[in-house]
Amino acid sequence: MKLARNKWLLSSAASVLAISLVGCAGAGTTTEESSSQPQTPEQQEQVSELNVLSLYKRTGDVPEGAAINLAVDSFIDSTGIAVNFTEAGENLGEEYEATVLAGQEADVIIVNLFDKSSGWVENGAAIPVNNLIAEWGLDSVIKESAVKEWTNANGDVQGFAFQGFTWPVWYNTDLLAKAGISSVPQTSDELIAAADALRAAGIGPMVVGGNDWSGNKLWLQFAQMYMDKSEAADVFSNGGYCASPNAMKGINEFVRVRDAGVFVDGVEGYTADQMNAAYYAEEAAIMPAGSWAMSGATAEIAASTELGGLPVPSGAAYSKPTAYEGFTGVGFFISQKGAQKLSAVKEFILSFYNPEVIGKFVAEVNIVPATTNDISSFLAAASPLLGEAVSTMQSKVEFALMPDAYVGTRGDALTKASALAFGKGVSADAICQAADQAYE
Amino acid sequence: MKIRAKARSKSVGPVGATRGLSLFSLPALAWFGFFTIGPLLAMFYISTLKWRSLIGKSEPAGLANYEKLFGSDVFYASLANTAFQLGFMIPIMIPLAFMVGYYITLKPRGHRVLRVVLFTPGLISISATAMVFYASLGPQGLVNGLLDSIGLEDLTKPWLASQDTALLMIVLIGLWQGIGYTAVLFAARLESVNRDLYEAAKLDGASEWRIMWRIAFPISLDFVGTLTMLQFLWTLFGSAGLILLLTRGGPGLSTTTLSLLVYQKAFFENDLGYSQAAGVVLFAIGLVGMLVIRTLVKARY
Amino acid sequence: MKRIGLGRLASGTLVWIYGLLLALPIYFLLTSSLKENMEIFQEPFALPTEWLFSNYAEAWERAVMLKALANSIFVSASAEIITLALVIPASYGLARSRSKLALFLERVFALGFLIPAFATLVPVLLLSIQLGLFQTREFLTLFMVASTLPLSVILLTQFMRTIPAELEESAMVDGLSRLRIMWHIYLPLSLPGVSMIVILNFLAYWNEFLFSLVLVGSNADNRTIQVALPTLIDQTKTEFGPLLAGTVITLIPVYLLYIVLNRRLEGALTAGAIKG
Prior knowledge:
The complex is a heterotrimer of chains A (440), B (301) and C (276).
Chain A lengths: L1 H34 L13 E6 L10 H15 L2 E6 L4 H10 L6 E5 L17 H6 L8 H6 L10 E2 L1 E5 L1 E4 H6 L9 H13 L3 E3 L6 H11 L5 H10 L6 H15 L12 H9 L3 E5 L10 H6 E4 L13 E5 L3 E5 L7 H11 L2 H11 L2 E2 L6 H4 L4 H7 L7 E2 L4 H4 L3 H11 L6 H10 L3
Parallel strand pairs in A: 1-2, 1-3, 7-8, 10-13
Antiparallel strand pairs in A: 3-11, 4-11, 5-10, 5-12, 6-8, 6-9
Helix pairs in contact in A: 2-13, 2-14, 8-18, 10-19, 18-19
Chain B lengths: L13 H6 L6 H21 L2 E3 L6 E3 L3 H7 L2 H33 L5 H13 L2 H12 L4 H8 L16 H25 L4 H9 L4 H12 L1 H26 L11 H11 L3 H29 L1
Helix pairs in contact in B: 3-13, 4-8, 4-11, 4-12, 5-8, 6-11, 8-11, 9-10, 11-12, 11-13, 12-13
Chain C lengths: L1 H31 L4 H6 L11 H9 L2 H32 L3 H12 L9 H10 L6 H25 L3 H9 L4 H12 L1 H17 L2 H7 L8 H4 L11 H31 L6
Helix pairs in contact in C: 3-13, 4-7, 4-10, 5-7, 7-10, 10-13
C-alpha cells in the first residue's frame, strides 16, 4: 500500500537523520579541538562585536549592575566594539554547552567554577589561560592561591579568577546576650549549651538552608571535621563516606549536634533565602552565610553580628572553629571563538581588573576579590561585615576544604543527601548511604 | 498496537471513495513524524552510547547503560516512587473528576464561576504552580501558618522536605491540578449526553448517584478511557517538571521518579547515554500502561 | 426526595471546598505579588500592608517582559495557526474516511502520547542544531506544532465523528467538493471542538518552559515569557514580590483567552450543536 510504504520510508529516513545527528555531534567536537589556535594580533580581522554570556546581570536594580556597567561601558568607549551581553541563570552551564555544540558559542563566559564549567577546558569548550595571565600582566594582579584553585588536574588554568568569598558563621551577639550567652561558642559543647539557652529564651538557635546548597556546605563542614585536607579531597571526589572512619566520626558529630536541637525546627525545609530572612528578622541567632549575603544585612544587624566559624569538638582535625573561603566565585572563561578575537577579549577582561571596578564590586556586591589590590579604601563603602571578614575574623577561624571543586557533578545528588541528613531522627548510617549513592 | 494495513486493490466502491480522505492527514503526519518520531528513535540510539556531557565525546557501548540501570538502587527507588505516584493518583483522580464534572452539568447555582475556577490549575504554568506551592508548603508557609492559627502547631512540618511527606505532597499537588482540569473536560463531554435518559431513570426512582454511575458513566466510557490514559501518560512523563522545581528529587531519593531520573542524569549528572536508557524504560512503561488501560476500558463493553 | 437534596448539598459543598482550595493559592499569589520578602514569609495570609505595585514595574523591567511577551505571542499565535491548518483537514479526513488506513493513521497519532517529552529533549536539541535553527523562535514554533498534533487530531476527530454523515452526502449530491464541505459544513459545526483544542494548545504553547529554555535560550531578544520569569530569581537572594508579580503578568493573557473562548464553547454545546 502506497501510504503504508511511505510511512515506513518516512520513519527510516527519520531514524537515519537521527543517527547522523548524533554521529555529527560527536565528531564535531574532535575536529574543533585541533583546528583552533589563538591567533596573533596581526592575523585577527577587525572585531566589531564581542559576545558575552554572563551569570552577572546588567539589567534591573541588581547589586552588581553599576559595577558591571562601569567595566563594560569603559570597554565600549575605549575600543568602539559592541558588546552583546546575554544573561543566563541557573541553566547557564547547559545553555553554553548547547551553543558550543551548535558552533554558536559566546566569546567570553562570566560564570563561577562549578561542576559543569570545571569540565570545559578539558573538553575543549574553553581555552586554558596559563600563558595569557602573564602575557596580559595579570600575574601580579591575581592571587596565586586563586590561580591554583582555578587549575585543573591536568595543570590547565581554566579561567581568570575574579570573585572570591568568605563563608563564616554569623552570630547575633545581641540575641545571644538575651539568652545569657556572653561570648561566641568555640566548641561543639558550647554551641549545644548556647542552643539550649536560646531555645529557653524563645529564640531560634542556628538556621541554615537545610534543603539546598547552603545546608550542603554546612553538612560537609561537619563531615570533614576529623579529616585532613587530602583525605577530605579524596572522599569528596570519590565518595565512600560509610567506609571512611573519619567521615563517619564527622557525620556522627553532625547527628549529635542536630539531635541536641542546635538547628531550628523544620530546618530541612529551609532554603538559603529563608535562612537569610529568618536571621535578618532576628528569629534565629546563628547562620552560616557567605559574603554575598552581606548586602542584605541592615546596619543594625551588621552591628550586632560577630563573624566566626563552626565550633569543633575536641579531637577534631581542626583546633579552631571552621569556615570556608575560596576564589571559585565568578571568573572569566574564553571560548574557542573568543580565542579568535584575543585582543578584543583581552581589553574586555582587563576592564574588569581596573582597580576602580574592583572597588565598586567590593563596595556594592561585597565580594572578596581574587586580586592583590589593597581594598581597604573600598571596604568603608562596603558592609562592615566584609571588613570584619577580611581582617579580625581571619584569626578566629581555620579554613576548611571548600568542597565544590572536588564534588563536581555530584553536587546536586549530594545536596539531596544532606537535605535528608537534616531531618529529625535520620541515622548516621542512612546519611552516609545517601551520600554514597550520590557517587553512583 | 500496530496494525499492518493489508494490501488492497484499488476498488472504487464506497470505501475506496473515502480512502483518499486519509490523505488529508498526510501533512500533519509528516510534520509529526519528523519532529517527534525521529527524536524518539534517536533516544533509543543514544541509549546505546557512552556519552557524558553534550560537549564530550560519544562512543558505542551496547547495552552497558541498561546493565548499569538495572543494577542501580536509585533506579529501583525511582520505579517504586513512580508506582506509588500513579497508583495513588489515577484511581482517585478519575472518579472524583468524573463526579465533579457530572455535578457541573447539573447546572447548580454558580456553575459558570465554578467552571472557570476549576480550570485554573490547567491555566497556570508549572513554574507558577511550583512557586505557589513552594510558598504554601514551606516551613513558614500558608499551611503551617494555618495550623498555627488554629492551635495545631505540633502538626507543622516542612512538608516538602521531610522524607515521609514529600512524595505525598507531590501526589496531592498532582491531584489538585488534575481533578479540576479533568472535571471540566468531563463536563464538556457529558453536556452532550441526552437528558431524556436521565429523566427516564428518575421516573423509575433512581437517585442522582445511580444515574451518574449507571447511565452517564457507561455512555462516556470511551472518553473516560481516553482521559485516564492521558492523565496516566501526563503524570508518568510530565510530573518531573513539578518535582524539579519543588524538591529536585529529594530529600534523599524520596521524590525521585523515573522521569525525573531521566532529566537528572542528563542535565545534572552529565550522563546522556544513561539518561536516554532510562527514557527507553519510561517509554516501555507508558506503552504497557496504555495497553492495560485500553484493555480495561474495552472489557467493560 | 429528601435524599437527593442532601446528596446534592453534600456534593455541592465538597465541590465548592475544592474550588476554594483552588482559589486560595491564587489569592496567595495575588497578595504576595504586592508585598516584599519579609512580609511574604512572615505574614503569608494577610492582605498587603502597603500595596507595592512597584513590584510589577520592577518585574516588567528586570525581565524585559515586553520583548518576552512579544516572543511568546509570536510563537503561540504562529503555532496555533499552523496547527489548525494541519489538524482540521486531518481530522476531517480521518473522521470521514471509513478505511482501515484511517484507523491505522489515528493509532499512529496516538503513538505521539507515548513519547516521554523529557527524554527526547536532547535529540530535539540536536535536530535544531543540525537544521541550523538553534536558538530561533521559528524552530520552537515548528516543534510545538508537532508536539500538540496528536492530542488535537485525536480530539477533533472524535468531535467530527459525531457530525451526521447525511449532511455531507446531501452536500455532495449538490456537487460541492470535499474541501468546500469541510470548510462550510464541518468547520462551523465543530467549532466547540475547535475551541477546545485552541485553548488546550494555547495553554501548551504559552506555558511551555523546558523546551523553550533549551531550544531558544535566555537571550532577552528571543526568549519567551516563561523563560524570562525565572530570571527574577537571584542565585543567592530572591525578591519574591516581583517574582510573583511577574508570574501574575504571565497569567493574564491565559485567563483572558479562557474567559473569552469558554463562553463560545459552552454556548455552542448547550445549544445542542452536538448530539451524543
